[in-house]
Write a structure and sequence with these properties.
This protein is mainly alpha-helical. It contains 17 helices and no strands.
Length: 286
């Protein structure tokens, strides 16, 4: 098992920060160490790490567990060096660990494997995992009854169509793929409706899509749309915001000043309405 100093050094190499406090919390107390490495509690402890250290800290927490697992169960260290350093491997692990008991973290690794077998890129899969996690977080904060499994799977599968297309038709394409995979109808609806926050019949006609109303009607659909856009903003390489909270607080202003996120005035208006509705449920200013 790697020592605390080794975890600290790998964190420093990945992020420029040592995350010493986090690694000591994981390893320094022998009486708590097993509990804090228990994969069944990763959702519980992951939320604590995210609240204290932000998304990057959450990633380091998951990475710490991943390094310990590989060190414990794989004999040939040389063969796993690339896997340890691979963001894809970390995303896969995160998906497996997030598939714990209960509805709080419904992301089974079998769904991630299905995305991969369907032809999605590893970058798109990593994005989809982030959207699923953000969507479930928003759903929990909303404080109203919701289908958490649908929210989680909706976030995970929303971009399935990007296995075949990266245009405005990727929602429709994803639903077609999903239908062949016998995915639930509610999940297909999320795939179709997330593009530009729910196209009108007129917009669908102009985009040469099957003409119908794609507007989001259920709260589950709206949460996935909102989560997708928040992840786009937070993860943008230009560093537009430094935290999820900043992205939520400044959401309308960010869309106005960075039109590439909204992709048009009508989608922007829909996104802002969704933002206001969900923030209203969470007690935010909207």
């Amino acid at each position: 098992m790697p020592k605390i100093e080794e975890h600290v050094e790998t964190s420093r190499q990945r992020t420029g920060k040592d995350y010493l406090e986090l690694h000591e919390w994981m390893d320094a107390d022998p009486g708590k160490k097993a509990e804090r490495h228990d994969v069944k509690r990763i959702c519980e402890y992951g939320q604590l790490m995210k609240a204290k250290y932000g998304r990057e800290g959450l990633e380091e927490y998951v990475q710490h567990i991943y390094e310990d697992i590989t060190a414990r169960y794989l004999e040939d260290q040389a063969d796993i060096t690339g896997a340890i350093q691979s963001q894809v491997a970390v995303a896969d692990l995160r998906a497996q660990l997030a598939g714990g008991e209960g509805d709080a973290c419904p992301i089974p690794v079998s769904d991630v494997d299905l995305l991969r077998r369907s032809g999605m890129s590893e970058e798109d899969i990593a994005h989809s995992i982030q959207v699923a996690q953000k969507a479930m977080e928003l759903a929990e904060r909303a404080g109203v009854p919701l289908d958490m499994v649908l929210v989680g799977r909706g976030g995970l599968f929303h971009d399935l169509g990007k296995a075949r297309s990266r245009g405005d038709d990727h929602g429709v394409v994803g639903a077609r793929i999903g239908k062949r995979l016998e995915l639930p109808g509610e999940l297909l609806e999320i795939m179709e409706k997330h593009v530009k926050a729910g196209l009108t019949e007129e917009e669908a006609l102009a985009a040469r899509l099957p003409v119908k109303d794609y507007s989001a009607k259920t709260l589950e659909e709206k949460i996935v749309i909102y989560a997708d856009k928040l992840v786009d903003i937070v993860s943008h390489p230009d560093g537009i915001v430094s935290s999820d909270a900043e992205a939520e607080a400044g959401f309308p202003e960010i869309l106005a000043s960075h039109p590439r996120f909204a992709k048009g005035d009508k989608p922007m208006a829909r996104l802002i309405r969704i933002h206001e509705e969900i923030q209203g449920l969470m007690g935010g200013k909207g």
